[in-house]
């Protein structure tokens, strides 16, 4: 079964992403989305060292909702900062100590941070113990670390790593 459908969760996700990109629910687009969702994981199977396991799927759905809300709110915040007085911005780099261990969870965390306007992941330490994050405007780095760890890292640890 793994050879025919190497990542069963990735197929519907890629299909939905395709349908969102083309903004259509026509039968041909659905078939093309399903085909892409099936063939892309097969073509990239050699780059996936392990099977993706989601230990808490309901938490993943909740996490994605929080993440999408954060993106919307952060867009307004960044727009206000840039359109206001950009000379008052206080950009900062901060090292986030990582509790997650799996490469997938670290990658997911880094991408979530980068997709949220106002922050970007810059580098994972060679020992995978720290993630360097740049924030557009931050005066309290300890609060930033605490927010990232509680809002993003803790749920990702539960979702992608066994307890």
Please characterize this protein's 3D structure.
The protein has 163 residues and is mainly alpha-helical. Helix 1 (10-22) packs across helix 2, helix 3 runs antiparallel to helix 5 and helix 4 packs across helix 5 (141-160). A hairpin with a 5-residue loop joins strand 2 (119-124) and strand 3. It has a three-stranded antiparallel β-sheet with strand order 1-3-2, covered by helices on one side. The chain is globular, with a radius of gyration of 18 Å. It has helices at 10-22, 27-43, 57-83, 103-115, 141-160; strands at 92-97, 119-124, 130-135. It starts with 9 loop residues before the first helix and ends with a helix. It contains five helices and three strands.
Give the DSSP E fraction (strand runs of 2 or more residues): 5-15%
Rg for CA atoms:
18 Å
Number of distinct beta strands: 3
Question: What's the oligomerization state?
Answer: single chain
Return the string of H and E elements. HHHEHEEH
Structural class: mainly alpha
Overall geometry comes to: globular
> Helical region count?
5
Unreliable stretches: none
Share of helix, binned? 55-70%
Straight-line distance between termini: 27 Å
Q: Major beta sheet, specifics?
A: 3 strands, antiparallel
Strand order of the largest sheet: 1-3-2
On the 0 to 100 scale, the average pLDDT is 91
């Amino acid at each position: 079964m793994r050879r025919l459908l190497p990542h069963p969760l990735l197929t519907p996700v890629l299909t939905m992403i395709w349908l969102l990109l083309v903004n259509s629910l026509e039968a041909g687009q659905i078939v093309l989305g399903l085909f892409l969702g099936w063939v892309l994981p097969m073509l990239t199977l050699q780059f996936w060292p392990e099977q993706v396991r989601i230990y808490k799927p309901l938490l993943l759905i909740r996490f994605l909702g929080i993440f999408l809300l954060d993106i919307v709110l952060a867009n307004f915040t960044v727009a206000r900062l840039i359109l206001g007085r950009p000379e008052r911005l206080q950009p900062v780099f901060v090292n986030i100590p990582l509790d997650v261990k799996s490469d997938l969870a670290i990658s997911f965390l880094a991408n979530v941070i980068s997709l949220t306007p106002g922050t970007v992941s810059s580098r994972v330490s060679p020992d995978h113990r720290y993630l360097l994050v740049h924030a557009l405007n931050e005066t309290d780095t300890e609060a930033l670390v605490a927010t990232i760890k509680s809002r993003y890292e803790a749920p990702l640890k539960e979702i992608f790593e066994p307890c």
